[in-house]
């Protein structure tokens, strides 16, 4: 008998997003992590950046005790379940609360400031790669400006050799950083740490420096919001996809439209459940990704898809977009038919589409029109649909 060595499984990583601060210096009348940044709350962009990374297996957000309504209003739809923890009076306490909330089966944790919404996949990749050989890793940028001492006047200079501007996410092997924070807590004489690298080093952990990114700035003042907006405008990848589909009527007592069962004297025919609304939006997403259409990924010749519920196809397209770093920001669907009447069911359709697309219902449009009794839809032989979807990669 030949013995084989099992293939080691890749370590599973969690993103711990620290959002418990007040952050009022940025203005806006609310904590900066909930302020709008180019049409989305800051924290929504931060969560989405980690949710889109394929190596992240869990999401934990540590919020202030008073911020449950703010987070509920700001949180985006996500691929992963979002675990909430309530922070403490200091950053140390908030991180400890987040570490305690990480689900079982996680090996690595990336601790990130909620106010750094422009973190890139490349920065995350660098931290994760370094954790293969180090207890901890964190991105940083070398200090390139001259350093002075003084107040109103310059009183001295400092050598900048070997100095770095720290960023997040700061990544660690989960048991090691939990032990480091426990030791930090047990020493009442030790002051609050500036970041988790300080906690880790005090516990004897080795922390690698990985490449940072100038765009990975921490929003602190109103000017930082302006700078972040300009950065997003220069690097944003915006895609628009269109979808069109038709299904004919046949025997049945209802039609499935946008995941909603609509009573009707006939049903729609197709290899799956023939939900022409979901099919059209799915094809629009594939189109924006230049990834073919439903038939490319779910061939009608494959019997396993016979009678399948169409939300399976749409979920696949949404996951594919997220894996490539795209957020779906808007979907507009037009159903073309004489009957059934769409108006009474439009709100339910919008709600179900928003759920499947993982976006707010206010970003989903479902409307209907007729062809004035012209053509196959006018003769009530079937239903056609047209959809446009917008995808954005920061």
Automatic annotation (TrEMBL):
It catalyses: 2-C-methyl-D-erythritol 4-phosphate + CTP + H(+) = 4-CDP-2-C-methyl-D-erythritol + diphosphate; 4-CDP-2-C-methyl-D-erythritol 2-phosphate = 2-C-methyl-D-erythritol 2,4-cyclic diphosphate + CMP. GO terms for biological process: isopentenyl diphosphate biosynthetic process, methylerythritol 4-phosphate pathway; terpenoid biosynthetic process. CDD domains: CDP-ME_synthetase, MECDP_synthase. This is Bifunctional enzyme IspD/IspF. It comes from Roseicyclus persicicus. A divalent metal cation binds at residues 245, 247, 279. 4-CDP-2-C-methyl-D-erythritol 2-phosphate binds at residues 245-247, 271-272, 293-295, 369-372, 376, 379. Pathway: Isoprenoid biosynthesis; isopentenyl diphosphate biosynthesis via DXP pathway; isopentenyl diphosphate from 1-deoxy-D-xylulose 5-phosphate: step 4/6; Isoprenoid biosynthesis; isopentenyl diphosphate biosynthesis via DXP pathway; isopentenyl diphosphate from 1-deoxy-D-xylulose 5-phosphate: step 2/6. The record marks 25, 32, 271, 370 as: Transition state stabilizer. Belongs to the IspD/TarI cytidylyltransferase family. IspD subfamily. In the C-terminal section; belongs to the IspF family. Residues 238-391 form the 2-C-methyl-D-erythritol 2,4-cyclodiphosphate synthase domain. Its EC number is 2.7.7.60, 4.6.1.12. NCBIfam families: ispD, ispF, PRK09382.1. Residues 1-238 are annotated as: 2-C-methyl-D-erythritol 4-phosphate cytidylyltransferase. Residues 239-394 are annotated as: 2-C-methyl-D-erythritol 2,4-cyclodiphosphate synthase. Transmembrane segments: none annotated. InterPro entries: IspD, IspD/F, IspD/TarI, ISPD_synthase_CS, MECDP_synthase, MECDP_synthase_CS, MECDP_synthase_sf, Nucleotide-diphossugar_trans. The keyword Transmembrane helix does not apply. The record marks 160, 218 as: Positions MEP for the nucleophilic attack. It comes from the Bacteria. Signal peptide: none annotated. PANTHER family: 2-C-METHYL-D-ERYTHRITOL 2,4-CYCLODIPHOSPHATE SYNTHASE, CHLOROPLASTIC. Pfam families: IspD (PF01128), YgbB (PF02542). Bifunctional enzyme that catalyzes the formation of 4-diphosphocytidyl-2-C-methyl-D-erythritol from CTP and 2-C-methyl-D-erythritol 4-phosphate (MEP) (IspD), and catalyzes the conversion of 4-diphosphocytidyl-2-C-methyl-D-erythritol 2-phosphate (CDP-ME2P) to 2-C-methyl-D-erythritol 2,4-cyclodiphosphate (ME-CPP) with a corresponding release of cytidine 5-monophosphate (CMP) (IspF).
